[in-house]
Amino acid sequence: MNKDYVVSENGDQMVKVRSDQVMNNAGGYVFTVNDQTKMLRFLILGSENGSYYVGKDRKIANTMNFLKEFMATEEGALQALELALDVKANNRAYKVDPSLLVLGMALASPFPQINGKAYEYMGVMCATPTQLFDAISYARSFGKGWGRAFKRAISRFYTEKEAYRLSYAMAKYQSRNGWSHKDLLRLTHPVPKDQQHLILYRWATGHDDINDKLFGLVKGLELIKKAEDEETVVDLIDIYKAPFEVVPTEWLKSPNVWRSLSTNMGYISIIRSLARMAMASVMDDPEWVMFLSDRIKDQSSISAMNVHPLQLFLALMTYKNGKNEHGREWAVSVEIVDALEQAFSMALKNVEDMGLRISIGLDVSGSMGGEVLPGISAREAAAAIIKVFQNCGNLTINAFSHNFKRLDIQAGDSVQKIVSRVSGMMFGATDCALPMIDAARKDEFYDLFVVLTDNETWAGHIHPYKALQQYREKINPNAKLVVLATENTEFSIADPSDSGMLDIAGFDANVGNIITDFIKGNI
Length: 523
Fold this sequence. Notes:
Layout: E1 21-23, E2 29-31, H1 39-45, E3 51-53, H2 60-70, H3 74-89, H4 97-107, H5 112-125, H6 129-141, H7 148-159, H8 163-172, E4 175-176, E5 179-180, H9 181-188, H10 195-204, H11 216-226, H12 230-240, H13 255-263, H14 267-272, H15 274-279, H16 286-296, H17 299-304, H18 309-321, H19 334-347, E6 356-363, E7 371-373, E8 376-377, H20 378-389, E9 393-400, E10 404-406, H21 415-423, H22 434-441, E11 448-453, H23 464-474, E12 480-485, E13 501-505, H24 511-520
Parallel strand pairs: 3-13, 6-9, 6-11, 11-12, 12-13
Antiparallel strand pairs: 1-2, 4-5, 7-8, 9-10
């Protein structure tokens, strides 16, 4: 018997009850990331253990071991590549890197059939130059050489695109991970299919004999680079519908340049660029503040783009904070804040009502007052999630730390009202098993448990995964559990071998859609 853990039916959370558990920062035992889950979850979530980590996966070494083992055979490599193609082509992933990583490994595979499939799929899986650069970087890191078939596959990225589309792509995405269009064109020598493609190839490789023949966004890029005054830059942005990526940094300090850029921006780009515009003093103009406010709270755009409310919540809190993680500050416009708050409420209508009975357990321990992102506390992030779920089904909301209490939160309550409601509550130890324990004791039927915490569970006499198992045995065998830990740690509370449990570590705009897809069985 392994002497490192205690065999127990339930087990105090500060007692190790399974060999694959480790001690977290609070002294409680939780599950570590391991290799027991499926390739599909890795491709969709970016983690092979059924957990979604905001930002870079901290367990990349284990991920690589998992991938190498999975793709060690021709059959496994083909299965991984086909899954990666499906996930990428159907926009099922929340991170694109996992699919590109699999593509890179397939490109470098020792199996010729896998190489051939990877060459064939590059055109679909590498929709932008950035994705192409990343796939090549991965392939080269796995030892891929510059064979003729590899060069032909790369060449097709350039030869198969219509000239004006290619012009836009080459101007907007010029380099990544040490690769540029100049590098790839010189390595692969694609044969231009017409004069326009020849012009683009010569431009990218540094030839100036075609400057007077440039067209599309590459022409706009070159003219903007040579512009000597703000008025010219603004005119060129308007003419070429230029994105900010082609505008030199010195001009991005100009409010007039940002005003011109914003007239061509889509809805998501607008809300992501508010801080940049504020730092460029765009908000000093009341008329432009009104223009931006109207764009932000445009119900038709919010509906047409199916904007998730968490995207707007993050934009709101980031802008409202008045400074970024680098210490750069901006003046906050009350009108813009008000527009973002209205847009958040409008976007709640985009949340699908799945007709489920949902139990939300909100951790109200003292540690939830800490920041998860600049200007956003764990309590605020959890309150925003509650607002989202109020539109998702029949909701019961409970507060817990070492105790458990039903919360009376109304549909019209704002995020800040929810935060105020729980800020003075029973701070104490954290027991993430309490939502399932309480529901089982009261014989309450739920389809889904959502635990909102900072992931430092340690109190109580039963592990959360075990509490769910017991609830299933007594009440609902199909009950699922989502543990959304707003603090991005490497730990997992859910059982990684249970397809009905999901961990989310950290907080970003994807988490709402991830939970929805998990409930539907898409993850």
